[in-house]
Design a protein that fits this description.
The protein is mainly α. It is built from eight helices and no strands. It has one domain. The two termini are 24 Å apart.
């Protein structure tokens, strides 16, 4: 099993600017170490809970073979849904309308989205199913737990990256949004094709 690939999964999941990553930028900017540490622990803990529950949900679905094709179709739809969602998040970050105007509002929304993050549901459904198909992950408790710990390490790296160079990352995505959107479009299109090949053909 290649559970260590969870580091890349966790890192990639937060590379695109979002309310959660903007919260890390704001907490670092206002230099409140206690609040920063609390939010960091909260985000990592919720990431573990999300990934652990969703991967166990996949295990439950595997036991119900009659809905297997429904799950496969849903994953294909999720690939396109994830693309649309990511594009919306990128378009919301505009260089002329500074996303740093209201730190407290951003941090409050960061907490909200850490608890209620539907994008992560789709993300881990896709990743979990593909990893199981490629035999990089088994659906045993030990394997899932190890994978989730690695995803948390990857997420932590992304959070630290945004904490120290986050403004530059946001500006880069804002200025190069057209190029970014094309890259995302291609990546999700390729993912959808891969899913079709692995699951259906």
């Amino acid at each position: 099993m290649k559970t260590y690939l969870g580091v890349l999964v966790g890192l990639y999941g937060y590379l695109i600017p979002s309310t959660i990553t903007l919260s890390f930028i704001e907490l670092k900017r206002i230099n409140n170490n206690n609040r920063y540490t609390l939010f960091f622990i909260n985000a990592i803990l919720m990431e573990f809970i999300y990934s652990f529950l969703i991967l166990n949900f996949i295990y439950f679905l595997k036991e119900l073979s009659w809905i297997d094709m429904i799950v496969k179709f849903t994953i294909i739809v999720l690939c396109f849904g994830m693309f649309i969602w990511t594009c919306i998040e990128i378009k919301m970050i505009k260089p002329k309308s500074s996303p740093y105007k209201d730190a407290e509002s951003i941090i409050r929304r960061g907490y909200f989205w850490s608890y209620c993050h539907p994008q992560q549901f789709g993300y881990y459904i896709i990743v979990g199913e593909l990893f199981v198909q490629e035999k990089w992950l088994s659906l045993s408790i030990n394997s899932i737990t190890a994978f989730c710990i690695f995803t948390c390490l990857g997420s932590a790296l992304a959070f630290l990256l945004y904490s120290f160079v986050g403004k530059k990352i946001v500006d880069m995505f804002s200025i190069n949004s057209a190029i970014t959107n094309k890259i995302i479009a291609i990546s999700y299109l390729l993912t959808a094709i891969w899913v079709l090949y692995v699951f259906i053909l």
